[in-house]
Amino acid sequence: MDLNADVGESFGRWQLGDDEALLPHLSSANVACGFHAGDPLALRRTCELASTHGVVVGAQVGYRDLAGFGRRFVDVPPAELEADVLYQLGALDAIARAAGTRVAYLKPHGALYHAVSQHPAQAEAVVRAVQAFGGLPVLGLAGSPFLDTVRAAGLEAVGEGFADRAYLPDGGLVPRSEPGAVLTDPAAAAEQAVRLATSGEVRSLCVHGDSPGAPALAAAVRAALEAASVPVAAFG
After folding, report:
1. What is the pLDDT, as a whole number, of residue 17?
2. Is the distance from CB of 212 to CB of 184 less than 8 angstroms?
3. Secondary structure element (H or E) that encloses residue 103, with its range
4. What is the CATH T-level fold of the domain 2-227, as seen in this structure?
5. What CA–CA distance (Å, rounded) separates 111 from 176?
6. I need a surface site. Which of 27, 69, 81, 180 has the fewest CB within 10 A?
7. Is 69 left (phi over 0), alpha (psi -120 to 50) or beta?
8. Residue ranges per domain, the chain?
C-alpha cells in the first residue's frame, strides 16, 4: 500500500507543514508545482529531501490560485488548463531531476481534484497534458469518474483513499467547511487507513501535509498498516 502526502507547499516566508519530519514516513510525495503553492526553492528542497529518503515524487497540479491555495473552482478553458498542467509537470520534473529523482506520477490538487470528476472537459484536459508529457500514472479518488477517463486514455489509474478525511455515505469526502471533515486524531486516522487499505478498492492512502500534526498522523498510519500486515511501498 502506497502512503502519500501533500508536500512542498511553503511559499517564501510563509511556511506550511513540516516536510522534513513528514517525508520519512511516506512512500510517495505529492509535491506542489507552484500554481496553488510552493516556490522554486521550496520545491527543490522538497525534492532533495524526497530523494534522500527514497520517496517517489509526484506532481500535484492545481489551478493558478495561490491566494486560495487551489481550493476554489476555476472555470478555466480546457486548452488553457491542459497547458497549465503541462507547464507544472515540466517545471517540477526539471527540479526533481536536478535533485536526483524525477516526476513519477500526477495527482490533481484541491478544487481541481474534485472538478475532474464533475467536469468531463477539465478531466480530459488534465489527461491530455499527461499524455503530452509522455504518460504517467494518475492518482484520483477511488471509484471516481475521473479514473474512468484516465483508463480510457490508456493511462494507469491509481485509486486513492484518505486517512485524514471524513467520508460521505456515497464515498465522497465531507466538505472542509463541515465540522469533522478533517481527522486530527492519529488513532482515528490509523483505523480508517487500515479499513481502506484492506477494502481492496485503493492502492494509495493520503495524509494531508497541512493537517494539524501531519507527521504524527503519517507515523501512526504507517505503523498501523504494518501491524495489519499491509506493507508500505510506492505503487510504481
Report:
1. 83
2. yes
3. strand 103-108
4. TIM Barrel (3.20.20)
5. 11
6. 180
7. left
8. 2-227
Residue 199: how many other CB atoms lie within 10 Å: 11
Provide the grid cell at 23.
Answer: 517525508
Q: How confident is the model at residue 145 (pLDDT cuts 50, 70, 90)?
A: very high
141 DSSP β-pair partners: 160
Q: Which residues of 63-90 are buried (b: 16+ CB within 10 A; e: fewer)?
A: bebbeebbbebbebebeebbbbbbbbbb
Q: What mean pLDDT comes out for the span 13-38?
A: 94
Q: Check residue 88 and give its pLDDT.
A: 98
- Among candidate residues 56, 101, 20, 30, the one with its CA nearest the CA of residue 232: 56
Number of H helices, E strands in the chain: 8, 7
What pTM was computed for the model?
0.93
Give ∠ CA 124-126-132 in degrees, rounded to 5: 100
What average pLDDT does range 149-169 have in this prediction? 94
- Residue 32's CB is within 10 A of a number of other CB atoms, namely 29
How many Å apart are CA 62 and CA 53, to the nearest integer? 25
pLDDT in tens, 72-130: 999 999 999 999 999 999 999 999 999 999 999 999 999 999 999 999 999 999 999 99
